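Hi team,

Filling in the usual template for the complex we talked about on Friday. All components are listed, including any nucleic acid strands or ligand strings, so the model treats them as one assembly.

SUBMITTER: L.P.
PURPOSE: interface mapping
COMPONENTS: two
RESIDUES: 640
SEQUENCES:
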Amino acid sequence: MPATVDRDLIAALLAAVRDGVVAHDAAGEVVEANTRFCQMSGYARDELIGRAPPLPFWAGGETPRAGQGRAILIHKDGRRTPVVVTTTPLGNGGGGGSIVVVADDAERDRFEQQTSESEELSRAVLSSHPAQIAVLDADGNIIAVNDAWTAFARANGGNDMTGGIGSNYLNVCQAATGSFCDEAPAVVDGIRAVLRRERSIFEIEYPCHSPIQQRWFLLTAAPLRHAAGGAIISHLDITTRKQHEEDLHRHAQELAGLAEQLRRSNRELDQFAYITSHDLRAPLRGISNLASWIEEDLGPQAITAEAKKMLALLRGRVTRMEGLIDGILEYSRIGRTKQKIEQVDVAKLLSETVDLLAPHAGVKIDIAPGMPTLSTNRLQLQQVFMNLIGNAIKHAWRADVTVRVTTGDAGPYQVEFAVADDGQGIDPQYHEKIFVIFQTLAARDKVEGAGVGLSLVKKIVESNGGIIVVESQPGEGGEGGAGGATFRFTWPKQMKEA
Amino acid sequence: MEHRPLNMLLVEDDELDVMNVQRAFKKNNISNPLFTASNGIEALAMLRGENGYTAIPPTRRIILLDLNMPRMGGIEFLRELRADPDLAPTTVIVLTTSDEDRDKVEAYKLNVAGYILKPVTLQAFVEIMATLNKYWTVSELP
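RESULT (copied from the run log):
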C-alpha cells in the first residue's frame, strides 16, 4: 500500500462496500479483509490475516486470474456457498498480490432467476393474449411483438397494418392504403401523442375488411412509463361485438320504421275516413233538399199520401246516413287531433259530464269518493265517461236506473274506472260485438244511435295504452231482477303530449 | 227606409247549392238580384265586366263564396280579388262545408266579412240568408 494513502480512509471504504473484499499478497496470504467478507466467511479478520483466503480456486492452488469468475466460498463451519469473484491484480507496485471482490452468487442467482421468471411471465401473458400486441420505442420503432401479432402479419402478408420488429410503426400506418386509410392519419396522430406523453391512452375502432371478410378492430396505444418511453400497441378483433351492435342497431331501426309506418298508415286511414265521410255529406244533403223541394213544389193538393210517406222515409234514411257519417268523423278525429294535456279533477269532470247528459228525474248517478286528479287529455276522458254513462241510461229500458262510477288503482302507471248500471244487462255472446263500429244490438228505430259510441270508447282507451272490458249477465242477480252491466277501463295516470 | 238593393254574386259550383240559395231568397221574399258564377275565373270576369259575361252593377256588391271549386278555388279567387285595386274593397262572405281551421285562417287573412258553414237543414239555410240580407242591407258599403 502506498504510504501516502490514509489507512483510515481505506478501512472506511472497505467497510462501506456491500460485497466482500479480501486482499492478499504475492504469497497468497491475506493482508486485509473487510467486514462483509468476515460476515460471509464466518471468520474474524484476525483469523484471516496471514493465511490463504477460504476460496476454492485458492484452496485448489490455482493462480487467480484477473477478471470475473465463479468460485466457492468455504465458510468457517464448512458450508460451501457459490460466489462470484472479481480479481484485480495489484502488480509489483502492490507487492504482486491482488484484491478479490466476493459477491454472494446465490443472491445474484435468485435475482436473475426472479428477473427471468417475471420476463417469462410477461412473455407468456403477451403470447396468450388474443390481441395483437407490439411494443414501440419512443420513436415508434417496433421492438417486440407477441405471437398474435406475428401470426396476423403472416396471415395478412400484404396487409397495411402489419409490421415486423425493427420497422417503424408510424411509417407503416402513414403508408397505409385501402380500407384502413381513412383512419390512418388519426391513428398516426394518436400514437404520436401517446409517445410524446401528451395523452395517457388512445383508442380507435376501425374497419379492416379483407376481400372475404368484414372485420373491425380496436386499436389501443398506451404509453410505457419508464424513462426510455415508448408505447404498447394492441389490435383487438371486435368483429363479433361490432356485428352484434350492427344487428341490434338494424333491428331497432327496423322496429322504429315499422312503428312509424303503422302510425302513418293509421293516420292516413283516419284522414281517409275523415275526407270521404266529409265528402259524402254534400250529396246527401242535396238528396234531402231535393226531396223537400219536390214536396214543396207539388204542394199539398197534388201530392199523394203514398208519395208523401215515401219522401218522409227518404229523408229518414238520409238522417240515418248522416248519423253514420258523423260517427265516422268522430271516430277518425281521435287519431287526427293532437293530445292536449291538462290537470283534470276527475270528480269535477264527472259532475260536468252528468250535467251535460241531463238525465231525466228517475235516473240516479252515484259517483264514488276518491276520484283522482290526473294530468291527462280532458276531452278524451270526458268522451269515454259521456258514452259509458249515456249508454247506461239509454239502454236501461227503465226510468229508474242507477249508474255507479267507481275508481281503483291499477298498478304504477294506470288507474281503473268502472261504470256500472243495474239495467237489463248484456248477453256474454255480444260482449265483443258491442265494441265494433256500427254494431248495435237494439233495432235502430227503437234506440237512436249509429253504434259508434262504444267503438269510440274502445279506440280512445286503447290509443292511450289502456284496456276496456265489460262484465254482465242479462236479467239475473242485480237489483230489481236485472243483471246490469259494468264497463271497466284503465287510464294512464300521467300522459305525455303527443 | 229607402230600398237599397244589394248586388249579390254567388260563386258556387254545386247546382244544388245554387238552387238552395235561390229558394231561400224566394222564401224570404228577397228581391235583390242574384248573380251566379261556377268558379273563381268566371266570377272575376263578371266582376270586371269582361266580354261575354253578365256584368254586375259596380255598387253595393256582396260576394257569397264557396271554397272548393274547380279551375279556381275560393282562396285563390280571394287572392286575385285583393290584388286587384278596383275589386279589393269588395265584401266577401265565405259559404262552405269546410270546417278546417286552415281554411278559416286563410280566408280571414284575406279580409272576408264572414265565414258561414253550409247548414244541414233547409230551414237553417233560409234563416241564414234572411240574416245575411238584413245585415248587409243596413250596412254601408264602399
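MY TAKE: The CA atoms of residues 10 and 26 of chain A lie 20 Å apart. Chain A has a mean pLDDT of 81.

Thanks, L.
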